[in-house]
Amino acid sequence: MVFIVCGRVSRSQGLVRGKVATSILAAGSFLGDELISWCLRRPFLDRLPSSSATFTCTQSTEAFALEADDLRYITDHFRYHFANESLKWTARYYSSNWRMWAAVNIQLAWRRYVRRTKCGVVDPVSENGGGDGDHRLRKYAAMFLSLRPHDHLE
């Protein structure tokens, strides 16, 4: 898990049909939050999780890294701290995976709301993916809904 102290890192994640979602992580951000879920999973799996994103430094960056064994030691010895609701909320709020999942679902809900308010009655054809862009967004949202980030903090 990497904590960015100063500098900027670009995060890019491949989507459907060759599209790429990118975001910039700055000082105070972190990456590799998949490792927390991996450490908290019971029964424990020795296989490291893979990241679905690619990270590239866009400028000179200074970072602090915790290796998987160090993070596992922390979660084993302070497991009761990870049950704290405030910590769960904070981890999900700053997680790039949870943010991407939330952004897609908010955008989908907004498009449905706008379509309902403009048209009055929703046409079942348009509800099932009428517009090409909307149809792709629905497929992307369905993918993320099925692969909702799991943090194993429950």
UniProtKB/TrEMBL annotation:
Keyword RNA-binding listed: no
GO CC entries: membrane
SUPFAM superfamilies tied to this protein: cAMP-binding domain-like
Annotated keywords: Ion channel, Ion transport, Ligand-gated ion channel, Transport
Gene Ontology terms: biological process: monoatomic ion transmembrane transport
InterPro entries from the UniProt entry: cNMP-bd_dom_sf, RmlC-like_jellyroll
Keyword Ion transport applies: yes
Name of this protein: Cyclic nucleotide-gated ion channel 2
